[in-house]
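Design request, C-alpha cells follow.
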C-alpha cells in the first residue's frame, strides 16, 4: 500500500510542538496547519472509558499528584486505569516532564499558559468531525491501541473497545479516513477479522526490536498495510551491510507503506543538521509515505514546496 502522491503529514499527539500533547486545542491547531491525519494514543480508565492519552501513567503530563496525593501504586506511579473519568476531568494537562521534573522540550508551550483537559476518544472524534464539517476539509484519524496486553491483564479488551467506539462515532458521520496502529503484532492479527478489510493497519516498530528482516516484512504484509518504524531504524543501519534508509525500499517491495516516527524540530537525531534536511532525506531521497511529527506546519510547508502542493 504505497501512498500515491505526497507523503502524509500525521500530527503526532496533535501539534504537540506548540500546545500540550493530546489536548483538543493541539488537534485543532494541527488541523489548521494542514495535517492529513491526527493521532490518538488510547488508554482505558477504571470505569472502562477510553481516553486519548499517551502514557499508562499520569504524572508526566498532568497535575495528578496535586489532586490525588496517595493514589499512586507501590511503584510510585499514578495509573490512568486507577482513576475513573470523573476524577480525570479534574486534571490539567501541561508540558511533558522528564523524570527529574524538568520540561522534556524546553521552549515549548509552558505550564502556565492555560487549562487543558484529557478528552475521551469519542469526544475527540466528534470534535474532529465538527472541524471537518465547519471547514469543509477532510482529515483522518490515526488511533493507537496502547499496551493491549497490559490492558488485558487489567481486565479490559482495549482493542475491541476501541473498534466499537470508532464504529459508533463513524456512524454519526462524517466518516473519517482511519489508520489503526499498534506495536503489538499479536493484537493487530487478533483484531484483523473484526475489522472492515478496508481499514488499514500499521505495525509499529521500535528500535529495540531491530531492523525487520525481509521475511518479517512479508509476515507483516499479511495483516497490515504499513509499518511505523522508529526513525532510528531508518537512519542507523543494523551493521549488517544494509544502507541507511533501505528499510523503506524493502517495505515497499513487501507492499507496505512506511510512516516513520517521530520528526521533531527540537529533538533532531544525532548528526542531522536541520529539520528540513531530515525531511529531505526521509521523504525525498528514501521515499517514506508519511511521517509522524510534532510540527505539522513545517512538514506541510516542506511537502507542498518540495513535492508539489
Ligand atoms: O505511534 C507512532 C508513535 O507515536 C509511536 O510512538 O510512543 O509516541 O506513541 P509513541
Ligand atoms: Ca503513538
Amino acid at each position: 500500500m504505497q501512498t500515491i502522491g505526497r507523503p502524509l503529514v500525521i500530527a503526532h499527539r496533535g501539534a504537540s510542538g506548540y500546545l500540550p500533547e493530546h489536548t483538543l486545542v493541539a488537534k485543532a491547531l494541527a488541523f489548521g496547519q494542514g495535517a492529513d491525519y491526527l493521532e490518538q494514543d488510547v488508554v482505558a480508565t477504571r470505569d472502562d472509558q477510553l481516553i486519548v492519552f499517551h502514557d499508562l501513567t499520569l504524572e508526566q503530563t498532568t497535575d495528578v499528584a496535586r489532586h490525588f496525593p496517595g493514589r499512586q501504586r507501590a511503584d510510585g506511579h499514578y495509573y490512568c486505569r486507577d482513576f475513573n473519568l470523573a476524577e480525570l476531568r479534574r486534571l490539567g494537562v501541561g508540558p511533558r516532564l522528564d523524570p527529574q521534573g524538568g520540561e522534556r522540550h524546553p521552549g515549548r508551550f509552558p505550564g502556565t499558559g492555560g487549562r487543558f483537559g484529557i478528552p475521551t476518544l469519542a469526544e475527540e472524534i466528534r470534535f474532529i468531525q465538527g472541524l471537518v464539517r465547519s471547514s469543509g476539509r477532510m482529515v483522518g484519524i490515526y488511533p493507537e491501541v496502547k499496551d493491549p496486553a497490559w490492558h488485558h491483564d487489567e481486565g479490559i479488551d482495549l482493542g475491541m473497545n476501541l473498534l466499537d467506539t470508532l464504529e459508533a462515532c463513524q456512524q454519526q458521520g462524517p466518516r473519517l479516513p482511519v489508520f489503526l496502529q499498534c506495536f503489538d503484532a499479536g493484537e493487530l492479527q487478533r483484531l484483523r477479522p473484526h475489522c472492515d478489510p478496508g481499514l488499514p493497519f500499521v505495525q509499529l516498530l521500535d528500535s529495540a526490536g531491530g531492523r525487520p528482516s525481509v521475511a518479517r516484512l512479508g509476515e507483516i504484509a499479511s495483516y497490515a498495510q504499513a509499518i511505523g518504524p522508529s526513525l532510528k531504524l531508518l537512519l542507523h543501519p543494523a551493521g549488517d551491510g544494509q544502507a541507511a534508509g533501505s528499510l523503506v525500499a524493502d517495505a515497499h517491495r513487501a507492499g507496505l507503506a512506511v510512516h516513520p516516527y517521530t520528526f521533531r524540530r527540537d529533538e533532531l537525531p544525532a548528526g542531522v543538521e536541520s529539520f528540513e534536511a531530515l525531511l529531505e532525506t526521509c521523504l525525498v531521497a528514501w521515499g517514506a509515505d508519511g511521517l509522524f511529527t510534532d510540527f505539522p506546519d513545517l512538514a506541510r510547508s516542506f511537502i507542498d514546496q518540495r513535492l508539489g502542493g
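Comment from the thread starter after seeing the answer: thanks! The chain has one domain: 8-58+118-307.
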